[in-house]
Design a protein that fits this description.
By secondary structure, the protein is α+β, with helices and mostly antiparallel strands. It folds into 2 domains: 13-100 and 183-210, no CATH class; 107-160, DNA Binding (I), subunit A, CATH 1.10.30.50. The protein has 5 helices and 10 strands; from the N terminus they run ββαββαβββαββααβ. Strands 4-3-7-1-2-10 form a 6-stranded mixed beta sheet. A two-stranded antiparallel ribbon has the order 5-6. Strands 8-9 form a two-stranded antiparallel ribbon. Strand 1 and strand 2 (23-28) form a beta hairpin. Helix 3 packs across helix 5 (183-189).
Length: 211
Amino acid sequence: MEASLPASGLGCNVLVLNRLYMAVRVVSARRAFSLLCRNLAEVVAVEDAGYFSYNISSWIELSALKAQFERDHHDFVRTVRYEIAVPRIIRLLGYDRLPRQDVKLNRRNIYARDHSTCQYCGKKWPTQELSLDHVVPRSQGGKTTWDNLVCSCVYCNARKGGRTPHQAHMRLMKVPVKPKRNPVINLRLGSDKYASWKHFLDHAYWSVELK
């Protein structure tokens, strides 16, 4: 495959499984192709009859058929010589560590958990118009924890100020809690494009970390 890939299709996300078919992270399509070309991973395709594995050579051959008969169902990366379908799932051939159980407390995950929606007015906002609010302000002993941080629009954040929602006569849409798995994955699973991920994501036991 060509050393330099064009941007088309490379903005997709690819679920990475360890050798034991357990999900461990999500990577960019560019990173996935790098692993495939170095024979460190294989493509796992979910089809009606089960799971099928492909190395990079066989996946390139299959991509020609997908481009001809299933183009609307796939994203493609074009090189000088051919088009390659972006895989949805790859499996690392020499990695069998267990996935991380913990979900990181960071801005991205809180925005994803709250669906970029202000938890006071209920409106969905662009990321740049959202901020994080401590439900119980730090000035009143509030901690920086999953159950004390919510998304808030600039207006509601200013209105609430250094008060609790009760003190500001405001109401939370829902009680903030720590998600059981990475909330960004929950957003992805809402898209038909990533429906095949569901076969490898167990809601009760493990989560996926975005890299």
